[in-house]
């Protein structure tokens, strides 16, 4: 099992747009082979800072999802409302 932590900073006023896209992404991700769980967190001191923590059966499963057309399309929708590039961290036990 691995954890994937994705950090994003959203442009001011774009929170609802981001939330809509993330709902679609999480629904799509649920069907990805090797996906176990995921949660979208909001930084309590900075609501523009979002942290997504997902659990995958393996790094290979994450990598397969990371390179899907579905994720690419959803990222294309998110990129214009991000202040900077997303940061991805992979963790293992």
Automatic annotation (TrEMBL):
Domain of life, source organism: Bacteria
Keyword Oxidoreductase: yes
Keywords: Monooxygenase, Oxidoreductase
Pfam families: ABM (PF03992)
Molecular functions per Gene Ontology: monooxygenase activity
InterPro entries named among the record's database cross-references: ABM_dom, Dimeric_a/b-barrel
Gene3D superfamilies: 3.30.70.100
The keyword Oxidoreductase appears for this protein: yes
Segments forming domain ABM: 1-73
Protein name (database record): Antibiotic biosynthesis monooxygenase
């Amino acid at each position: 099992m691995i954890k994937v932590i994705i950090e994003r900073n959203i442009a001011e006023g774009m929170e609802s747009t981001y939330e809509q896209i993330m709902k679609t992404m999480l629904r799509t991700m649920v069907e990805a082979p090797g996906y176990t769980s995921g949660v979208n967190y909001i930084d309590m001191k900075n609501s523009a800072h979002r942290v997504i923590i997902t659990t995958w059966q393996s790094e290979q499963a994450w990598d397969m999802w990371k390179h899907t057309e579905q994720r690419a399309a959803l990222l294309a929708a998110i990129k214009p409302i991000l202040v900077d590039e997303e940061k991805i961290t992979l963790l293992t036990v």
